[in-house]
């Protein structure tokens, strides 16, 4: 049970403030913001998501640069409150299409109306956009999405590939299209975040995939949907990992949205559901089965005299040439006494940027895209302010990379088909099944 | 719809309020709606638009739900400050609660419940009664929550109108949303009531387990948390529950998963079959790990919980250590928690992997994280004997990188490793010494100096090394100075040659004559005297064998761990503190924003009545007599200007027949001057050392107030204190710090105490056994008495309503009374002052024949309340004290306390 809910901008301005129980002082938003901004406790400089000041417990999550905060005086379930804060953000985004300070301010009456239905006397009532539609009457005023920074996760489809209707994912679930009728369409996104740690010799130390099948339905009349996954999918790995190589996809664990029925899941790996309105995860899964990492990163450091060294970074894309990764950023911390870096890109390099961030002595190499099967190299000549002692390799690195690879998924989990119960033979809504892989923690040690 | 809502925030050139007023009364609907939106906009940015109350309320009668909702939102905000105007809205509310549209019916009760104005509350009961039995589930679920709202405003009313029964009926409702809300409401009411209201019988239990499957995710959490209060009868019962709850582990909502984990862990305590337990552990591991794929905020909560779970059941995640490896983009608060868990899960089997990780972390950029990683390596060395050597070699590698803070952190942990494995790894000292001159942090320096002193005989140039530190002796921090002093003495004792002899002269001189630090000076004098009188004894003392230290990574006290595990999936498990430490929810009325006004109002009332006690006693009970309490219940905006509020039905007074007109002013501010402490160890027994002591409470903290008087012929120092197990688990919160006591001098010490540290079993006793030692005398033992009133907490004040309710809810067998024939209460005011200063709070007073009866409340830690009734004839000997408490076995202690308080 929470006492207050509020949304603060990055500057600490109150955008939304709702007091449900009147047990916590009104100044709580200010107290909270000051505490978070000047956090310094136990040697940590970032406030944890839950803390207590003078008997008031503050919870917060960061969503697109906004702080979603709840307060309470009692010993509640913190995961409930944090999950709730995320869900409130999602509901508001469903309604407004775009979630940011501007859209919140433009729609504050609607937001308050939503908040009153989502929470009563501090108790969560529902966070289902579908259910809320029957109780909420204000209409959203959609802000112009075109000039806005795209938001994750759906926004990742907006880059590159043209055939994806970029605006669809930022449109409100409830607002009507300017043209009148809504377009019948459904989006199923298989989003995988991969974490890989390579040892200095290139051997994989840990690897993990966190995946989500995300759905956003704009279908009228809520028809039933069947989603078929790989037939050879198995769940739960034994105590030994012998099954690798058999070709099957083995998930460590997975969970499902409450609307999903699993009657046939054990026999033919199909999920049945009536998708509620709004964006929601159909299924989350986790996999530590070995998989082929999309990129290999090689680093070589050569000393070149007492005050100089050369770093050679090589990135090889080990996925099919029909696929292109985009917005790749490779970063590498350099020794503290590095004063200057001269970069040398490969001849004919296009869409690549290099930078030496002096403040934290970090090299940054950006590549707009990398086509599968290709290899790219960067040479960086370092100049030091003092003679290095010991080992330069140990004082630099590890190399980390972030990237997005559309239409690629490392786990090989697939949506074999997406069936929509037909209302009539003419009914043929748009179906978008999209895959994307993103780097979570992709690190090569040195 | 026109334009953007943000336009409502723009201000107009001329007076905003008159303009809004005009628009609110416009004949056009749209204009009125726009105007209400503007009013709400102004309200949210903190502008005072309360003067538009009447105009806004006039817009309430509309068929337009959107507009109605806006008006309701406004009402919730301002009804408190305009109670008289709020009554205007009542008719519409009541009408709306019977509207054919269920949304409007629900909206009406929901809003009425949020308006904490007595007049509105009175009108709420009938609609609420109807709505609890409404045909529409949306109305019923709203009504269920509304009962909790009403209980918070007026608990009596809820009980009298039978709402609790209606609420219990809703547990069997066919709509899961209704069930969930009924459970949530009952759970909250139970939390605020001393009486059992929401008892989970095996019948309700199975009903709720069934509802679990159909509930929304949030309802599942309410139900799981309520169910966790149910104690299964036996292992079979527990297994049955687990079977029903286990599917929840697959839920996508992390809070459902954690609440299910909590339930399963609780049941596991009862399950005897090791196979079943092992199987459950296996089932819980994947969902727990999956929590780490959620947002970092949730990960943090999960990690804090996992930290507790692995302390009790290390096997659950023994094979999953890899998932706790830090990702480079984890927030620092996640990384720190992961490190802790990695240490806890480190074993001989995985230590190589773990060390590789730690080594990598130790070269990262974030200094705090790096330090913690280095420390983690040391902790693993101390924890895993067989891996210690590998840990040390990693530390040495790190030292060779020569990153300053890494080296310093490594030296600090290596010192601990030496303590853990004496005479094993000294070969690395030479490597450590190479970094000597780069040390600039006190703790690292002190550690290095300790190492040099401890192993002086093996370090050829130990004297040179120490000498290099000596030059800067006066500038060093105390921690380093103390180590330098001891190390030099050790060196001298081990190598009594000319060099060290000179050094010791310099050090002793510096540490006695040149310093202001009493600790340093005292220690130097001891050494000096020891060395000059009996060097052999000095060796025995200074070079004595040290106790071997152990790993501190499982440092939670078992009883605390039990309590925290019972609180998994609550804030308690994130803070790693028991709930009573941080939950300060005072009965809600005391926390309202109008709080300040209440305080002012009541103060005014008190001072007035204290100035004219006779007047106020004589005045008719309807006006002034009720003021202090009326102030508490009537959240009037400006108590000074508003006319005297109509009397609130005074249930307390009516029921006990109390005479409120004789309310006695209570001054909380004054603290009595403390009398001399009682002697607990007379000088005749203590070879000249006399100790007087007493427990005292100050600002909510308990202290042991001690006076040491040295009547012996020698200076006494090195005082230490120890408390034997006792009924309250009282123990010292820190070391006793007594300066050296020269003959004929004394020292008064206030030693902070903590509770529930080493609690003894058996019936509560006031006996407190204390042992005090010093360096010169044998250990002294003495007995002291724990006076219960020291523990009375500041939150022991009860509202009259809850006092009465608690009194009635406790069975008569919990009432104990005692006569004190020789105590006389003379000044009522002075007595009440004294009692309130000891956190015994005055509630009411009445006259019974020629006797005065006083009611008080008090509370001791762990939330145990005492309800007290004192009967006496003022000025005549004889006081009768009757108490009611859930813990009647405490009564004898309580009577001892009250006797002390009344006599003093």
From TrEMBL, chain A:
Domain of life: Eukaryota
A Pfam family: Adap_comp_sub
Compartment(s) of residence: Endomembrane system
Domain (MHD) ranges: 183-445
Swiss-Prot/TrEMBL keywords: Membrane, Protein transport, Transport
Cell membrane among keywords: no
GO CC, any one term: endomembrane system
Any one of the GO BP annotations: intracellular protein transport
Similarity field: Belongs to the adaptor complexes medium subunit family.
Protein name: MHD domain-containing protein
TrEMBL record, chain B:
Biased composition (Low complexity): 601-628
MF GO annotations: clathrin binding
Broad class of where this protein is predominantly found: membrane
One GO process term, biological-process aspect: intracellular protein transport
GO cellular component: clathrin adaptor complex; clathrin-coated vesicle membrane; Golgi apparatus
Localization, UniProt: Cytoplasmic vesicle, Clathrin-coated vesicle membrane; Golgi apparatus, trans-Golgi network
Recorded topology in the membrane: Peripheral membrane protein
Leader sequence residues: none
SUPFAM superfamilies: ARM repeat, Clathrin adaptor appendage domain, Subdomain of clathrin and coatomer appendage domain
Region (Disordered) location: 591-652
Annotated Clathrin adaptor alpha/beta/gamma-adaptin appendage Ig-like subdomain domain residues: 673-783
Keywords: Cytoplasmic vesicle, Golgi apparatus, Membrane, Protein transport, Transport
Residue ranges of domain Beta-adaptin appendage C-terminal subdomain in the record: 792-903
Known function: Subunit of clathrin-associated adaptor protein complex that plays a role in protein sorting in the late-Golgi/trans-Golgi network (TGN) and/or endosomes. The AP complexes mediate both the recruitment of clathrin to membranes and the recognition of sorting signals within the cytosolic tails of transmembrane cargo molecules.
Subunit structure of this chain's protein: Adaptor protein complexes are heterotetramers composed of two large adaptins (beta-type subunit and alpha-type or delta-type or epsilon-type or gamma-type subunit), a medium adaptin (mu-type subunit) and a small adaptin (sigma-type subunit).
Family membership noted in the UniProt record: Belongs to the adaptor complexes large subunit family.
Name of the protein this chain belongs to: Beta-adaptin-like protein
Protein species of origin: Dovyalis caffra
């Amino acid at each position: 049970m929470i006492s207050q809910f509020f949304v603060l901008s990055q500057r600490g301005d109150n955008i939304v403030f709702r007091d449900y129980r009147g047990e916590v002082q009104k100044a709580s938003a200010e107290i909270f913001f000051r505490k978070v901004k000047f956090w310094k406790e136990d040697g940590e400089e970032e406030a944890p998501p839950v803390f207590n000041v003078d008997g008031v417990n503050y919870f917060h999550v960061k969503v697109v640069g906004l702080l979603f905060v709840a307060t309470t005086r009692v010993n509640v379930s913190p995961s409930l409150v944090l999950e709730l804060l995320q869900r409130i953000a999602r509901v508001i985004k469903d309604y407004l299409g775009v979630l940011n300070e501007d859209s919140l301010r433009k729609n504050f009456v609607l937001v308050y109306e939503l908040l009153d239905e989502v929470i009563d006397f501090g108790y969560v009532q529902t966070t289902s956009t579908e259910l809320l539609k029957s109780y909420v009457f204000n209409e959203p005023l959609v802000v112009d999405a075109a000039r806005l920074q795209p938001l994750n996760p759906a926004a990742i489809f907006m880059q590159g590939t043209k055939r994806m209707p970029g605006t669809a994912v930022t449109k409100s679930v409830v607002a009507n299209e300017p043209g009148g009728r809504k377009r019948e369409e459904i989006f199923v996104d298989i989003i995988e975040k991969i974490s890989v740690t390579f040892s200095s010799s290139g051997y994989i130390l840990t690897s993990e995939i966190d995946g989500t099948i995300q759905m956003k339905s704009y279908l009228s009349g809520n028809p039933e949907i069947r989603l078929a996954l790989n037939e050879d999918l198995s769940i739960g790995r034994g105590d030994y990992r012998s099954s690798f190589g058999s070709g099957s996809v083995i998930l460590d664990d997975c969970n499902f949205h409450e609307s999903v029925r699993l009657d046939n899941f054990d026999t033919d790996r199909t999920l049945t559901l009536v998708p509620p309105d709004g964006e929601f995860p159909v299924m989350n899964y986790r996999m530590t089965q070995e998989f082929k990492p999309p990129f290999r990163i090689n680093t070589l450091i050569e000393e070149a005299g007492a005050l100089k060294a050369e770093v050679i970074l090589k990135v090889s894309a080990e996925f099919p040439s029909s696929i292109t990764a985009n917005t790749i950023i490779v970063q590498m911390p350099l020794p503290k006494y590095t004063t200057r870096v001269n970069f040398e890109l490969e001849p004919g390099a296009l869409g690549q940027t290099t930078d030496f961030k002096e403040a934290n002595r970090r090299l940054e190499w950006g590549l707009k895209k990398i086509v599968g099967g290709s290899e790219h190299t960067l040479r960086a000549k370092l100049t030091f302010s003092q003679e290095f002692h010991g080992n330069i390799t140990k004082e630099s690195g590890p190399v980390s990379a972030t990237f997005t690879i559309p239409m690629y998924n490392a786990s090989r989990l697939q949506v074999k088909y997406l069936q929509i119960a037909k209302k009539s033979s003419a009914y043929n809504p748009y179906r978008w099944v999209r895959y994307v892989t993103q780097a979570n923690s992709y690190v090569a040690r040195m | 719809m026109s334009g953007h809502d943000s336009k409502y925030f723009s201000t107009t050139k001329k007076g905003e309020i008159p303009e809004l007023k005009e628009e609110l009364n416009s004949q056009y609907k749209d204009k009125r709606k726009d105007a209400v939106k503007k009013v709400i906009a102004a309200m949210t940015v903190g502008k005072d638009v309360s003067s538009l109350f009447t105009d806004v309320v006039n817009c309430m009668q509309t068929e337009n739900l959107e507009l109605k909702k806006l008006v309701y939102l406004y009402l919730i905000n301002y009804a408190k400050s305009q109670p008289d105007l709020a009554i205007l809205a009542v008719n519409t509310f009541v009408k709306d609660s019977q509207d054919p549209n269920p949304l409007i019916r629900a909206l009406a009760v929901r809003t009425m419940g949020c308006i904490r104005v007595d007049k509105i509350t009175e009108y709420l009961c009938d609609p609420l009664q109807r709505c609890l039995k409404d045909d529409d589930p949306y109305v019923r679920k709203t009504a269920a929550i509304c009962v909790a709202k009403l209980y918070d405003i007026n608990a009596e009313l809820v009980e009298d109108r039978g709402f609790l029964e209606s609420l219990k009926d809703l547990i069997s409702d066919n709509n899961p949303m209704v069930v969930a809300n009924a459970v949530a409401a009952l759970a909250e009411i139970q939390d605020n009531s001393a009486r059992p209201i929401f008892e989970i019988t095996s019948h309700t239990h199975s009903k709720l387990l069934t509802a679990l499957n159909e509930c929304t995710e949030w309802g599942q959490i309410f139900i799981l948390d309520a169910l966790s209060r149910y104690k299964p009868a036996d292992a079979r019962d527990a297994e049955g529950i687990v079977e029903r709850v286990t599917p929840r582990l697959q839920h996508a909502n992390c809070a459902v998963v954690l609440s299910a984990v909590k339930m399963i862990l609780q049941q596991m305590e009862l399950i005897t079959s090791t196979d079943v337990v092992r199987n459950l552990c296996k089932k819980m591991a994947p969902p727990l790990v999956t929590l780490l794929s959620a947002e970092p905020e949730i990960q943090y909560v999960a990690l804090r919980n996992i930290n507790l779970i692995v302390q009790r059941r290390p096997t659950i995640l023994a094979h999953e250590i890899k998932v706790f490896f830090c990702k480079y983009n984890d927030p620092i608060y996640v990384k720190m928690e992961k490190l802790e868990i990695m240490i806890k899960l480190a074993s001989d089997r995985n230590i190589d992997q773990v060390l590789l990780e730690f080594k990598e972390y130790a070269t990262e950029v974030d200094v705090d994280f790096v330090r913690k990683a280095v420390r983690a390596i040391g902790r693993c060395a101390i924890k895993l004997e067989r891996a210690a050597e590998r840990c040390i070699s990693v530390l040495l590698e790190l030292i060779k990188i020569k990153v300053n803070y890494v080296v310093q952190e490594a030296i600090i942990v290596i010192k601990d490793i030496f303590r853990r494995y004496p005479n094993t790894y000294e070969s690395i000292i030479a490597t450590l010494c190479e970094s000597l001159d780069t040390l600039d942090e006190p703790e690292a320096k002190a550690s290095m100096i300790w190492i040099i002193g401890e192993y002086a005989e093996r370090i050829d140039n130990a004297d040179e090394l120490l000498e290099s530190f000596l030059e800067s002796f006066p500038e060093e921090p105390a921690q380093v100075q103390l180590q330098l002093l001891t190390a030099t003495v050790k060196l001298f004792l081990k190598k009594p040659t000319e060099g060290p002899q000179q050094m010791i002269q310099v050090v002793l001189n510096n540490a006695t004559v040149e310093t202001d630090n009493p600790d340093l000076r005292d220690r130097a004098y001891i050494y000096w005297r020891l060395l000059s009188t009996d060097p052999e004894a000095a060796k025995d003392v200074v070079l004595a064998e040290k106790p071997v230290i152990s790993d501190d990574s499982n440092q939670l006290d078992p009883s605390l761990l039990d309590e925290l595990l019972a609180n998994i999936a609550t804030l308690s498990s994130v803070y790693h503190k028991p709930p009573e430490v941080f939950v300060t929810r005072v009965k809600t009325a005391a926390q309202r924003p109008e709080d300040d006004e209440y305080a002012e109002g009541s103060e005014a009332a008190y001072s007035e009545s204290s100035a004219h006690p006779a007047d106020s006693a004589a005045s008719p009970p309807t006006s002034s007599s009720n003021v202090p309490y009326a102030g508490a219940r009537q959240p009037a905006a400006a108590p000074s200007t508003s006319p005297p509020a109509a009397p609130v039905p005074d249930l307390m007074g009516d029921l006990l027949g109390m005479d409120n007109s004789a309310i006695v002013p209570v001054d909380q501010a004054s603290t009595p001057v403390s009398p001399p402490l009682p002697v607990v160890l007379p000088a005749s027994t203590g070879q000249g050392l006399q100790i007087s002591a007493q427990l005292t409470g100050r600002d909510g903290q308990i202290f042991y107030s001690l006076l040491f008087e040295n009547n012996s012929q020698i200076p006494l120092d090195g005082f230490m204190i120890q408390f034997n197990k006792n009924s309250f688990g009282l123990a010292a919160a820190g070391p006793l710090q007594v300066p050296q006591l020269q003959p004929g001098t004394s020292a008064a010490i206030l030693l902070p105490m903590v509770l529930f540290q080493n609690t003894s079993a058996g019936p509560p006793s006031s006996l407190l056994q204390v042992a005090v030692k010093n360096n010169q005398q044998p250990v002294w033992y003495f007995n002291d008495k724990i006076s219960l009133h020291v523990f009375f907490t500041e939150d022991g004040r009860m509202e009259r309503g809850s006092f009465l309710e608690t009194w009635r809810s406790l069975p008569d067998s919990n009432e104990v009374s005692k006569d004190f024939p020789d105590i006389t209460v003379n000044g009522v005011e002075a007595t009440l002052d004294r009692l309130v200063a000891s956190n015994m709070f005055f509630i009411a007073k009445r006259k019974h024949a020629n006797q005065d009866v006083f009611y008080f409340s008090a509370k001791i830690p762990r939330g145990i309340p005492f309800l007290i009734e004192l009967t006496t004839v003022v000025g005549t000997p004889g006081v009768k004290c009757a108490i009611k408490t859930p813990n009647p076995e405490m009564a004898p202690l309580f009577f001892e306390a009250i006797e002390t308080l009344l006599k003093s």
